[in-house]
Amino acid sequence: MLTPRVLKLSLLRRLRAAAELPPPWRARVIPVRSYHSRGYSSGGNSKFDRPMRQFSEQNESSPQPLIYYIVPSALLAFAGLATFVHYNDERRAVPLGEGARQTSVPKRCTTNRPAIGGPFKLYDTENNVVTESKLRGNWTLMYFGYTSCPDVGPAEVQKMADVIKLLESKYDTKITPLFVTIDPQRDSPVQLKAYLSEFDPRIVGLTGSISAVRQIAQEYRVFFKRVEEIGQDYLVESSPNMYLLDPCFETVRCFGVEYEASDLAVAITTEVQKASVSSTN
User: Fold this and answer.
1) Mean of the pLDDT values across residues 261-276?
2) Residue 220 above 60 pLDDT?
3) Do residues 179 and 188 lie in contact, with contact meaning Cβ atoms separated by under 8 Å?
4) How many CB atoms sit inside 10 A of residue 114's CB?
5) Contacts by residues 42-46 (CB-CB < 8 Å, ≥ 24 positions apart)
6) Cβ of 212: how many Cβ atoms within 10 Å?
7) Taking the model in full, what pTM does it have?
8) What ranges in the chain are assigned the alpha helix state H?
């Protein structure tokens, strides 16, 4: 049986243990978290700002589509090319106008013409060098043929002789008749002079090397080739056209074999009068 002293000590021990433990009815103290309001700004460090900032940085660093660079570059290149071409055209036009004023070449020489004709270097029946620049200043009627032609050639040369006579007697117009051979191997200056003098000695005959004749034929769009070759004898097939050239030695008109001498004289006079009217305006 426990003594009163033992019971008292046991009771005190239990009371002390109970004082050290938290009572079940006492409310727990929970620390209160403090909240701070943050504004949305680009310089914030919150976790909500990071995705937006990363998205903005990715958009800034990501390259733009290639079309945004190609289209402006192409437009700039086109504008620069147009300016360059216009500038060069003006540079070419200025000396041409100045040359027309300094010489006796009419103003209509500065107008655009079809690309028929070009520079050449041939020889006349006196072995003198003849170029297109030496023939400028007068109206010219040019024909391509050869002295051995059996039928069409003599008829066209006779037409040329009749035309220059009609122009002088009826219309008081002078032109330079020009006969260019397409058979330089047989048409020497001596041969040309003897042949043309039978029609009209005023017809100027031109010949030259094979390459020089081929060049002028190409420039005036004249077709010719050898046909029916028998040894040293052959014929030359060609386009029998006459060209009217103005004082600038630029092609104005082309006449075929269907023109008679009278029709040809009227057509040439019309072109000369038109040029005279346009030069005075």
Assistant:
1) 93
2) yes
3) no
4) 10
5) none
6) 16
7) 0.60
8) 4-20, 49-61, 67-102, 152-170, 189-197, 210-219, 261-280
